[in-house]
Amino acid sequence: MAVDLSFLRMLCIPSKELCTPAVSFSRSYRSTYPCNGYRRIVPLKWTRRGGGVVAEFSSGESSVKVVEFAPAVVPLVEFLEREEEVGGKEEKEEKEEELVASLRELQFPVWRGTLIKLCRSKRSVTARRLLTLLQTCNVCGSESIDLLCAIVITGLSKESRLEDARLLFDQLKEIGGSPGPKAYNAIVGTCARENEYEEALELLDQMRSAGFQPDIVNYTLVFQACAKKRAGVDVISRVCADIKEEGLEMDTKLYNDVIHAYCCAGDPDRALQYMDSMQACDLCPDIRSYTTLIETLVVSRRIDDAEAAYAEMKSRSLKINLRALNALLAAYTRNSLLDQVGQLLRDADDAGLKLSTFSYGLLIDAYSRAGRLEQAKAMFQNMKDASVQANAFIYSRLMVAYRNARQWDGAIRLLKEMYDNKVKPNQYVFNILIDTYGKFGRLPQAMRVFAQMDKEGVKPDVVTWNSLIEAHCRASMLPEALTLLKQMQERGCTPSLHTYNIILNALGWNRCWKEMAVLLEEMKSKGLNPNEVTYTTLVDIYGTSKRYREASEYLDQMKEQGLQPTTSVYCALANAYAKQGLCEQAMEVFKSMEKDGVELNLSMLNLLINAFGVAGRYVEAFSVFEYILEVVSSCSDQCVNSTK
Questions:
Q1: Would you tell me how many other CB atoms lie within 10 Å of the CB of residue 426?
Q2: Residue 448 is inside which H or E element, if any?
Q3: Which position among 376, 473, 524, 562 has the lowest Cβ density within 10 Å, counted as fewest Cβ atoms?
């Protein structure tokens, strides 16, 4: 059986699909086969039938009608299809004039039908050439050209040929006409579909200036483009004002798109206003509007409003989706509202929703931060039972739960499971393992993990180095810690202020005063100024070592740099004096606190009692104790009165 495949090549159907049953081509080739790089376009084979011309795919017993044109336009369409093969410019123009001259008597419906069929068969470029020819030769009137232009622009839009659509629209002005309302609406819609909302808005302004009414559908497309491009609130409000000024009645689709656009712009208040207006018109927001509103409210930390929107969505019998569920789940887990999580999980079960990897990650992270290892493990097992693949983040959060529960061996089992499941450990996973080993004093294992990290090509960050340095400092291995600091900088990782604070603390408690001074200068030379933690460490270390002058100097330096000493700083110095029974000096610290506006707390008063006790000044110690009792009694009376 001989088969003519020419029309298949013309329709750009890949050769590997040539055995597809013929009946399916007319229904699905446009959506199934967009652009393929190996196409080769050849002219169609035309056959006259029933007063028309049909391109056929013949299999001997049946045929499929692909594109049907009026017989008169076939030569012109064929010529435009192979225009590049024709000789010089003059020869082309002569041939065009000859073909058009023979077609001037054709009625408008013929041209309209021809352009529609060309666009439907994804030959909008040919349609554009034909329209240009019709316009140049004045074959159709301006109103007809307006409609034909809209048809071709829409066809170009469906093939994502925005630049060709722009050129065709501009061509209307150049050749001697002016765009009509249909052409304007078509080009606005094309720009909006390509998410070029700024250009679409400019064209809408031009359209209104020309005295034409924009199409309500185009406003819908513009809002969709604004949402995708995250346009600002001012842009969306401007478009809404234009709609109101033109007196257009908003429908359900337009309301939902406005709500979605405002949510994407991060303005839930305006979205709520339009939702109220929509409901006042007896229109119902769709699931997308509720979902994006809930997400935006959660991002804005407005959990109560998000819960209200979620409850309203359920009351309207709208089926909840995973996006809305995850948004609320993120809000609850971030704020440790684990009791509310249970209701969400029940809603998911009722709706038949399968939790995603992201959902399980939120839950395991929340249980980990709350110190609920058993619940985190149970959720991890539920995830496995649901055949949801865990990622590196989930493993890392479960490792944190094991570490915080002082079950470091559980973290190691998880690492082995990761490798078994072909989940590659990332930087965060390695950091947790190094920190876990370091906190349990297992430095050899920590260094082995560090070596494995290098072997797998995972670059250590400042957290990695800080964990290693802190582990060595905790083990009083200061030379090794300083060596790691040097290696850290040699490998291109800049130490943080926290890095220096770790080493300063270790040097101080080991009475390495000279090394401390050198490290402080190095830190300052890198533009890292001491912070509250640094000064608290220095005051505490020098005070405990009975080097009160240096401790007081660092307290003064802290004030000079504009840093407000915290209660911890004062406590550190007062505690140093108290341990030595230096009551007068401790009292001076308290006076300085009062002068700086720092309120005395129970810890400070206890330190003062301790100082008087060590010095044998028991009368003063009991006086402070009685003062504490008076303060406590006064606070109790206030609490009782406030509850009445």
A1: 17
A2: helix 443-455
A3: 562
- Would residue 234 count as lying in a domain? no
Residues with Cβ within 8 Å of residue 414, at least 6 apart in sequence: 395, 398, 399, 402
- pLDDT value, residue 38: 31
For residue 482, what are its two tokens?
Answer: 């300083």
Token pair of 98, please?
């000859």
CB distance 52 to 70 below 8 Å:
yes
CA–centroid distance for 34 within its chain: 29
Q: Which two tokens stand for residue 369?
A: 């931060």
Q: How many domains does the chain have?
A: 1
Q: HEC states along 329-367?
A: HHHHHHCCCHHHHHHHHHHHHHCCCCCCHHHHHHHHHHH
CA–CA gap between residue 589 and residue 611 (Å, rounded): 12
Residue 56 lies in a domain: yes
Residue with tokens 């006042």: 280
Distance separating alpha carbons of residues 153 and 244, to the nearest angstrom: 28
**What is the distance between the alpha carbons of residues 396 and 433, in angstroms, rounded to a whole number?**
9
Q: What's the rounded Cα separation, in Å, for the pair 144 and 371? A: 73
Q: Can you give the pLDDT at residue 303?
A: 92
Q: What is the pLDDT of residue 68?
A: 64
Contact 185/220 with Cβ under 8 angstroms? no
Q: Are 499 and 473 in contact (CB under 8 A)?
A: no
First-last CA distance in the chain: 100
Q: Could you give the CA distance from residue 494 to residue 120 in angstroms, rounded to a whole number? A: 60
66, 44 Cβ separation under 8 angstroms: yes
Between helix 548-560 and helix 532-544 the angle, nearest 10°, is: 160
Q: How far apart are CA 70 and CA 108, in angstroms?
A: 12
| Nearest CA among 606, 611, 613, 614 for reference residue 631 | 606
User: How far does Cα 356 stand from its chain's mean position?
Assistant: 17
Q: Which stretches of the chain score pLDDT less than 70?
A: 1-69, 83-93, 95-97, 100, 102, 142, 175-177, 599-601, 604, 607-608, 611, 615, 621, 624, 627-628, 630-644
Cβ burial of 107 (10 Å; 0-12, 13-18, 19+) is: exposed
Measured CA to CA, the distance from residue 469 to residue 439 in angstroms comes to 11
| Structural domain range at position 6 | 1-69
Reported pTM: 0.67
With 0-12 / 13-18 / 19 or more C-beta atoms within 10 angstroms meaning exposed / middle / buried, residue 455 is: exposed
Residue 46's DSSP bridge partners are: 55
Closest to 148 measured CA to CA, from 160, 134, 158, 137: 134
DSSP 187-248: HHHHHHHTT-HHHHHHHHHHHHHTT-PPPHHHHHHHHHHHHHTT--HHHHHHHHHHHHHTTP
DSSP state of 495: P
In a domain, 177, yes or no: no
pLDDT, tens only, 287-315:
999 999 999 999 999 999 999 999 999 99
H or E element at residue 331: helix 322-334
Q: What is the pLDDT of residues 526-575, one digit of tens each?
A: 889 888 888 888 888 888 787 888 888 888 888 888 887 777 777 777 77
> Which pLDDT belongs to residue 44?
43
3-class state of residue 371 by DSSP: coil
Q: Is 355 helix (H, G, I), strand (E, B) or coil?
A: coil
Q: Are 292 and 259 in contact (CB under 8 A)?
A: yes
Place of tokens 């926290």: 498
Q: Whole-angstrom Cα distance, residue 212 to residue 206?
A: 9
